[in-house]
Amino acid sequence: MPEIHTSASPETKTLLPHEAQVTHTEVMRIFEAFKEANDARLAEIERRAADVVTEEKLARIDRALDERLARLDRLALEARRPGLAPERREARTGATEHKAAFEAYIRCGETAGLRTLETRAMETRAMSVGSGPDGGYLAPPEIETTVTQRLSALSPIRAIAGVRQVSGATFKRPFARTGPATGWVGEAAARAQTDSPILAEQVFPAMELYAMPAATQTLIDDAAVDLESWIAGEVETVFAEQEGAAFVAGDGVNKPTGFLTQTLVANAAWDWGTIGFVATGAASAFPEDDPADVLFDLIYALKAGFRQNGRFVMNRKTQAVVRRMKDGAGHYVWSPPAQAGGAAGLFTFPVTEAEDMPDIGAGTTPIAFGDFRRGYLVVDRLGLRILRDPYSAKPYVLFYTTKRVGGGVADYDAIKLLKVAAG
Q1: Each residue of 248-297: pLDDT tens digit?
Q2: Which of 20, 219, 329, 344 could form a disulfide with 340 if both were Cys (CB 3.0 to 4.6 A apart)?
Q3: Please, which residues have CB within 8 angstroms of residue 21's CB and are 6 or more apart in sequence?
Q4: Is residue 8 very low, low, confident or very high in pLDDT (cuts 50, 70, 90)?
Q5: Cα–Cα distance measured from residue 45 to residue 357, given in angstroms and rounded to the nearest whole number
Q6: Helix (H, G, I), strand (E, B), or coil: what is residue 371?
Q7: CB atoms within 10 A of CB 269
Q8: Which of 375, 365, 367, 317 is nearest to 346 (CA)?
Q9: DSSP for 81-132, written as a single string
């Protein structure tokens, strides 16, 4: 099997704690033990005498490796999570009008300051700060920025997709399905007239995503508690979970459209508007003989222009299966992260774990490969709204927090899927 070279962009380097470096060393050590145990299992299978003890040992090592990888991912995520910016800390003594008015609203339900800003905005035709009847008030930009940055670290597909911020309800993107004719021509030769491109339009509506964290009055009254940071921390995980599921398998009804819910066709019959797939050749699993060759076929189903920035997307269970595979030369095709905070590799391409990807099973598409920066687009509508509700769940105060997010396939040629099917 020929060697694969890629110029995929390196993982973002972050200053990780010493604990992450130690965990990364443990991952490398455990993977060596995993390879040794798996090699012993394969040798026993060839002798038609597979040992149950060897299988159990390999399963234990596999679980330990998954635990260390999960821990390493958690440490890297915490290191990437942005803290409060200096200007936000300074805002305790010299807040902007919007921030000061918003904090008064969050702590006490006082809306006079926000209404004053709303009146002034209407007079100057500036961006509205929102109103209670409209579904809440716009949070200061610092909170929105913090939530967006944390989502980029938490949401696996958002982290690798293209992201566009808009101020309207939808984002419309024109694209050319067929470009103008081009070619080389001599200096004095006649130029043939080029054909006009056929233009179409993609529409990405921004749907409403909400969370409703609850706080006690004691927490709200505590001046030492940064309520803005607290709200951001409370909503980030649930927003990321909802986004992750929708970007992968959303049906487009009041949510983004996932790349797995597009029309799927065999890659040989691919056309714009569909996602091409490569079959495993077995009805319910990978083929027994040379299973890694199927992944190799998936890589080369993608055009070279996309392949150089390609990455795999799969869940942890699927990655555990792929971890046992070897290429024709007997080398393991999966490799642990080269550095703490990095991504695991598969044929030297990075692997993104997305737990919303399906498990391996008949008819499923457990692995995606592509240039997701060009292939999938996430649309964020500017503005994070928060509505204070002290009445619905007494004695707690609810903070109904909403943001608008859209998403869908931007380039159908940039993503390919592996489908578990006989052919």
Answers
A1: 999 999 999 999 999 999 999 999 899 999 999 999 999 988 999 999 99
A2: 20
A3: 340
A4: very low
A5: 31
A6: coil
A7: 8
A8: 367
A9: S----HHHHHTTTS--HHHHHHHHHHHH---HHHHHHHHHHHHHT----EEG
